[in-house]
Structures are given as structure tokens and as C-alpha cells.
Amino acid sequence: MTSEKTKETGNTVLKRFGQRALDYLRSPGRQQSVISSAPTQHVLSTPEKAFDSDSDNDRPQNITSYVAERKTTLGGRFFDSITKYAGSRFVLILTSSILIAWAIVGIVLGAPRNWQIAMQDGSSIQCYISDSLLMRQQQNNCHELLTVLVQLQSRNASYMRMLRALPNDRKLGHSATSTSVKRLAEEDPRQAVNLPTENWCDVSCNWISLAVGSIYALIIYWGGVIAWIGLGPMLSWDNLWQLYVNTATAVELTFTSMFLQNTRRRHMDYLEECLASIIKTDCEIELLLRQLTGDIQPNPTLEIEPQEVATGVRLIDYYADLIGSGAGVFISICVFIIWIAIGNYMQWNSNWWLIIGTYTGLVGFVDGFVLRNIYFREDKMLNTQFNALINADMDISQALDLHLPHQHLAFKKGLIHRMSRSMGILCSKPETVFGAVVIVVLLLCIASGMQWSETAQLLCNTPTMIIEGFLLIVLVQAHNMAHSRRRVQLRGVLLRRLALLDYIKQMVEQASVTQGKTIGDEKIRIDTEVVYMDSIEL
């Protein structure tokens, strides 16, 4: 009897272990809900307790800024730190310095063959790592923005609840908007597109970002490729001819990938400053409304439900999660260890040097399409949530009979814009991603038939590096367009909240005057943590 129970217990343990292992393997790429609520602002009616040290520990803390979700694992936090550091100004300057030093060495040595192969290998490895960091950066930025948007909508729901509780005679109807808010609303929304510049480096980066992400950069890029093809007969289509374009694209890939990481970080830092202003204004509105209504109900928890995706898209998401996680780093480390281990067997020859470049080049080729696909879908999701927030703001506007400013950035619908947008959409389609996988398989078959000679490996590297370089330019272009729109959207969110805050302040003032008081007579103590006030009969 005991042995049967032991056997049954063992089977149960194995079954649970197997289920957990299966769940773990299935978890990458799984669509996740974004669930959050805005931190509730507390209004207390006991100012005396503000000076009571015994009550400090019980005092509710008002959170007036966005608190990023802390990763549960040490590895996740470490990976996020590396991702953020990779987008720093120091890393960008270091990368540029290495490229300049490499160019100087090539000039001195006469651009030998090993010099070119070293650049290609170094670039392929760097881009392979950068793809993981770009994916992580992309996912983190999207999740942070979605969380903030959910919290803003959470507060909007509380606003509507409290405004409905107010008697109609408390509402002002058509109220005068402050001069400062009017002036901001009348400004050209395109001014929000321009990033504030701090020093020469920021000025240079802003200019380079626009230049690299333009249609003219693509024209120059493909013009160079066509010129290289034209030189083929003169160089007998040999390996050196392939090395030339591989070296050129390697330089472009290295710079563009590192520059894109830096651009994303600078832009996200700016968006975080905008969000800080929005959240601070939001908290002030909530405090005043709670003061008016005596409402103590917490802000509701809202959810952005996961999108339903097809099986093919689920596979793309699975792969993307592997790239942007510790699993991707682990796979990369294993590949590099194996590559180094076979070096002695291959006598450290040129084929051995090319192997790692071939592997990282082929993987990076697929990664470029995956990055564009994920970015396109995340950008679409963010636009949907911004539109939902705008609609919620308009509901508040109608409830108060108040005009809230709404600005929209209209891009020029010229030929260049249409071409850029069409290329971006085409490169982001799931069919394009799977087409890239098919191309990689074909190249692997061809290289195997050629016994993985130097020519075979260069054949794998050349077309994939050219297309990967093109995709990075398209990604910079898409990023510039999306963040221009995002900055205008956030400016609109802030303007609407400033107008609403101005309206609520007038309501408070009117209510105070109605009671024969002035705002200055109210015993309201506001600090950065919590608001204390005497009982106010409004």
C-alpha cells in the first residue's frame, strides 16, 4: 500500500514538473494583458496629524509620478540595465571612435583582406547583440507607455464618477480658459516634434537621425549597391569584390544599430519628461476633485486585453521574446563558445573567421524583419490606446460642456512620404518575415552544396547584410515618424489636462466664494506627499 502511494506521489510530481516545463516553453510570445490602476490621491481632514510623529507611519503616501514595474528576476533587471547603458552617449561615442580607428588602421595597412574580415565579423557580432538589445528596448518602451496610458484612463474613469456626483449648479458650463493654456493650444503642433537640444552631441544626433531616416538615405544606400554591382565585371566577381560591399555594409550596420539605440533612449527620456508633467497635472486634478466631492473610492483597475493573433504571428512573437530575453543571451554565449572551440580544429583559418560572421549575419537578417514587424504592431497598439484616451477626454469635455484642445499632426502626403510608409508596411508584414526565413534556408542549402567554402560563406553574408542594412534605415525612419506623432499626442494630452485643471480650479474658487470664503482663507496644506485640509463645506 505504501509503495503504491509512493508511486502515485512520484507520478504526480513528474506530471506537475512536466506541466511546468511545458508552460515555460510555451510562455515566450504569449500575448500579455496590461493591467494597472492610477495611484489614488488621498485627501485627509486632520491637519493636526501632519505634525504628529506617531502618525507618520500610517500616513498614506501620494504617488505623483510613474513608478516603473520592477522586474522580478535579477537577470531581467541586469538585462534592462545593459539595454539602457547600450543606448548611452558614451557607447555611441565609443563605437564611433572604434570605427574611426579601424578606418585609420586600414588606410595605414592598405586595406588588407584580414582587416576587412575582422570588420565584418566584429560588425556581425555587434549587430547580433544589438538586435537583442533593440528588441528588449522596444518591448520595454512599449510596455511602459501602455501602462501609463492605462493609468491615465483609470483616472479619467474616476473623474467621470466624481463629476457625475457633483450637482449641476456646481458646474460652470462654458468657462474661460486661462491665457497660458490658450496660447499653448494655439501653437503649431509641429513644434512638439522638435526635441529640446542640450549640447552639440544632441544637435548632431538629431540631425543624423533625420538624415539616416530619410528617403534620401535609402536612395544613396541603394545607389551604392548598384555601383558595387557595376564594378563586378572589373573585379571578376571574385571574393575580394564581395568583401568590399560586406565591409561597407558592416560599417553602416554597426553605426546605424548603435545610433538607433541611442536615438530611442534619448527620445524615450524626453517622453518620460512629458509623462511626468502629465501625471503631475493629473494628480492635482484628482486631488481637487476629491476635495470637492469627498470621494475616497480608489481609482479603478483597467486592463488592455491581449490581442488575438494568428499562428504565424505567434511564432514571430515567440522568436522575438527569445531574442529579447535571457534565453537569447544564453544561446548566443553557447554559439560563441562552440565557435571558439572549433578554432584549433580549423587551424584558425579564414573560413573559421567567416563562420561566426555567417551565422550572426543570417540570424541578424531575420532579426531585422522581426524587429520591424514587432515595431509596426506595437505602434499600432499604442495608437489605439491613445485614441481611447482622447475619446475618454472628450467624454469629460461633453460632461462639463467644456472645450478641450485637440491637436493632430498631419504628415505631408507627398510621394516621398508615401514611398517611405509603403516600404515600412511591406517590411513589417508577417509574410515578409517568413520570406526572410525561406531565403536563409536557401542560402544554407547553397552554402552546403559548396562545402562551406570562403566563397559560399561570402555568398551567405553579402545579400543578407545588404538587406539588413536597408532594414535598419527603414527602422530609423519608422521610429522618427512614430515618435514625432507620439510627442504631439502627449502634448495634446497635457494641454487637455491643463485646461481641465484650470476648469476645476475655477469650480473650487466658485464654491469657496459661494460659501463666503476665498481660496486664501482655506486651511489647505499641500506637500509633495499628501494633502491635508480642514473640513470645507462646499
UniProtKB/TrEMBL annotation:
<feature type="compositionally biased region" description="Polar residues">
    <location>
        <begin position="30"/>
        <end position="44"/>
    </location>
</feature>
<feature type="transmembrane region" description="Helical">
    <location>
        <begin position="90"/>
        <end position="111"/>
    </location>
</feature>
<keyword id="KW-1133">Transmembrane helix</keyword>
<dbReference type="Pfam" id="PF04120">
    <property type="entry name" value="Iron_permease"/>
</dbReference>
<feature type="compositionally biased region" description="Basic and acidic residues">
    <location>
        <begin position="49"/>
        <end position="59"/>
    </location>
</feature>
<feature type="transmembrane region" description="Helical">
    <location>
        <begin position="322"/>
        <end position="346"/>
    </location>
</feature>
<protein>
    <recommendedName>
        <fullName>Low-affinity Fe(2+) transport protein</fullName>
    </recommendedName>
</protein>
<feature type="transmembrane region" description="Helical">
    <location>
        <begin position="433"/>
        <end position="452"/>
    </location>
</feature>
<feature type="transmembrane region" description="Helical">
    <location>
        <begin position="207"/>
        <end position="229"/>
    </location>
</feature>
<feature type="transmembrane region" description="Helical">
    <location>
        <begin position="241"/>
        <end position="260"/>
    </location>
</feature>
<feature type="region of interest" description="Disordered">
    <location>
        <begin position="30"/>
        <end position="61"/>
    </location>
</feature>
<dbReference type="InterPro" id="IPR007251">
    <property type="entry name" value="Iron_permease_Fet4"/>
</dbReference>
<keyword id="KW-0472">Membrane</keyword>
<keyword id="KW-0812">Transmembrane</keyword>
<feature type="transmembrane region" description="Helical">
    <location>
        <begin position="352"/>
        <end position="371"/>
    </location>
</feature>
<dbReference type="GO" id="GO:0055085">
    <property type="term" value="P:transmembrane transport"/>
</dbReference>
<feature type="transmembrane region" description="Helical">
    <location>
        <begin position="464"/>
        <end position="482"/>
    </location>
</feature>
